[in-house]
Amino acid sequence: MHKIIGFDTETFFSRKLKYSVKTMIAEQYCKHELFDPYIISVSDGETNWAGHRRDFNWNALEGQTLISHNRYFDNSVYNEMVVRGWAPRINIAGWHCSANLTAYLCNRRALAHSIEYLYGIKLSKDPRENSDNKRWPADFSAEEQRKMLDYARLDPFWCRKIWVDHSDKWPEKEKRLSNLTIDQGMRGVQIDTRLLDEYICQSHEMKLATEKLLPWMNDEGDDEEEIGWEGFKTKPTSTKCIAEQCRRSGIPCPPVKAHEGEEAYEEWENEYRRNHPWIVSLSSWRSVNKLYKSFLTVKARLRSDGTMPFGLKYFGAHTGRWSGDAKINMQNMRKEPVLCTVGGFMESNQKNIEEAMRHKESTGKFPEWVKYALDFRALVIPRPGKKMIVSDLAQIEPRSLAWLVGDHQTLDFVRAGKSIYEAEARFSMGFKEDKLDKKSTIYAEAKARRLALGYGAGWLKFITMAHQYTGMDITEGDPEFEFLPDGSKVSGYGKRSREIVAAYREQNPLIADKEKGIWAALELAFKRSIGSDLKVVLPSGRVLRYEKVKCERKLKPDKDGKPRLSAVFTCDIGGRRFESYGGKLTENLVQAFARDVFADHILILNDTPGISVLFTSHDEAILEVDEHITKHDVENIMSVCPEWCAGLPVAAEAKEVSHYLK
DNA sequence: GCAAGATGCGCC
DNA sequence: AAAGGGCGCATCTTGC
């Protein structure tokens, strides 16, 4: 008879020896000499068994469906046990991850948190905490052994119960996406190991060279003030050292990017970088160090065949997007290479970098001042005999927003093969000419408006975002002063931005109208949910949940920076409270909707013979394919409009590449 | 000595 | 009344 069996393992770990799944990925942990899975525990709902692996009847699993809370881990443990001859190969009907299920159900991954949410029962993790650095059975007293076994029996019981009680709410597609994600990570990607070794040496060199330019790291007598750095732990990015250095140099401390904004920091940097070169070195050090550490992690993770396993979290974000996991985040590998100048330092001037990239594009080589280039993405290559294709959805989020609000004018225009940014120029910016040059200011502004203003951004934010998306500085040309109707004189900074934001909102009523727009509709729904939950049903049928909505009073700085009490609306997501409002809810909705479109494509790609999905990054699929698969095949699949969002213009751009890039 | 929070850096 | 959002990891400081 077919059974659903909860399956769990308890393994030796040691914080002291830095041996745990926190410090390494599951496979590294299992390959380690300290690896010891000393308890196997299973539950079929009636019997909960726990004991040493020697005493486990593996045949009981034959033909059954297994449920583990974090299948990635338990599956890796089992695989290694087979390799070591500690477990036989068995045929199972399937193996599912209840942590992925609870992420989908209630935005929680930890078993204890999920059980508390779903059943109102608090489980103790004490026995596991007490097993830190303890060998089984020698380091456990008889009492401790009994407690540990009792504890171990509970885990598979609960993860099985979660499955039995709730898996009917998990659509078949999502179950497949969950297992697909786990399998992708376990399969891993091929790494160019020769290049990796080169990168490790080069980035280490750069790191050391950069470190020497930080005054507090190189305080050898040439300091005129002779104050020394006693009392300071001189670490490369120590905030205390930075502050002290600024004091000594008579310059203000750097503005905090998260508070004062990115451009405030840029301004500060531009003001002082000439006379204080360490300022640039500081940022460089952070970048180079990050890169260097990533290279080391890749190296430590390599298998003998040059592939590297990785982790990606199914439903890592509450919108349903995947998120990174386990030290190397496949979704945030830098796009542009780090360029090392002849002096051994990282080039940080954006203009120089762009020029170097253009030079490379046209001549195939970097200019002479580039000593070497470190490109993380170049490390990821197709396996022998395979090709690599990278494909991403074209402007999926702005298109999704247009579809969600029913902007048929824009949708028709895009379906006719035209640009969604041009739609903005024509329909809400008054552009009337025959042709819109993609290099024109109008086009750039239209693009910035579509990308930045759909979710309620204000004028100050728009200045930064416009710069980020198009490179243009829209404050250029702002008057120094403005006169208000009452005759008073105020700064003219941001005049243009204010005008653009107001015009966008005026011209896009489906989005921004204070009564009929989507921001207002979602905000109203949110406020009406006070005292209960807001459920936003997505076109795919999936539901976004904002639980326990409340109106709270919060101190916020007003225009003059003085604290003022204001009303904010908050909700519970995954056990934590967040503030939200119309624009933010709109963004969540669009992100979740676009994720569902993309997820459909991933399933079709995966079902296509000759295509393996290596990993994904929000709207981009990185594929390893057989010789006969072309980029057009991939584009065709990723241009499919799911049946639950008829009329959405979906398109993709794919390219065949020798290594991961963009 | 560890955990939590703040900050910066990377991505879509 | 106004408010872009979603992530993860490394480093450092602070508080227990």
Q: Can you summarize this structure?
A:
The protein is 42% helix and 17% strand. With 662 residues, the chain is α+β, with helices and mostly antiparallel strands. The chain binds a DNA duplex (12 and 16 nucleotides) through α12, β9, α18 and α22.
Protein described:
By secondary structure, this protein is an alpha+beta fold. 42% of the residues lie in helices and 17% in strands. The chain has 23 helices and 22 strands. A five-stranded mixed sheet has the order 3-2-1-4-5. Strands 20-21-13-22 form a four-stranded antiparallel sheet. The chain has a four-stranded antiparallel sheet with strand order 16-17-18-19. Strand 2 (37-43) and strand 3 form a beta hairpin. Helix 7 packs across helix 22 (582-607), helix 15 packs across helix 16 (420-428) and helix 21 (518-528) crosses helix 22. The longest helix has 26 residues, at 582-607. The protein is globular, with a radius of gyration of 28 Å. The two termini are 51 Å apart. It binds a DNA duplex (12 and 16 nucleotides) through residues 15, 233, 235-240, 256-258, 283, 286-287, 289-291, 293-294, 313, 316-319, 321-329, 331-335, 376, 392, 397, 451-458, 461-462, 465, 566, 568, 579-584, 586-588, 590-591, 617-620.
Jot down its keywords.
four-stranded antiparallel β-sheet; single chain; DNA-binding; 662 residues; five-stranded mixed β-sheet; alpha+beta; 42% helix; globular; 23 helices
How are the SSEs placed, and which strands pair?
Blueprint: E1 4-11, H1 26-31, E2 37-43, E3 48-51, E4 65-68, H2 71-83, E5 94-97, H3 98-106, H4 111-119, H5 126-129, H6 142-166, H7 172-187, E6 189-191, H8 193-211, H9 239-249, H10 257-260, H11 262-272, H12 278-301, E7 307-308, E8 311-313, E9 323-325, E10 338-341, H13 350-363, E11 370-374, E12 380-381, E13 387-393, H14 396-405, H15 408-415, H16 420-428, H17 441-452, H18 459-470, E14 481-483, E15 489-491, H19 495-507, H20 509-512, H21 518-528, E16 534-537, E17 543-557, E18 563-573, E19 576-580, H22 582-607, E20 611-616, E21 620-625, H23 631-637, E22 652-657
Parallel strand pairs: 1-4, 4-5
Antiparallel strand pairs: 1-2, 2-3, 6-7, 6-12, 8-9, 10-11, 13-21, 13-22, 14-15, 16-17, 17-18, 18-19, 20-21
Helix pairs in contact: 3-6, 7-22, 8-12, 14-22, 15-16, 16-17, 17-18, 18-19, 21-22
The chain binds a DNA duplex (12 and 16 nucleotides) through helix 12, strand 9, helix 18 and helix 22.
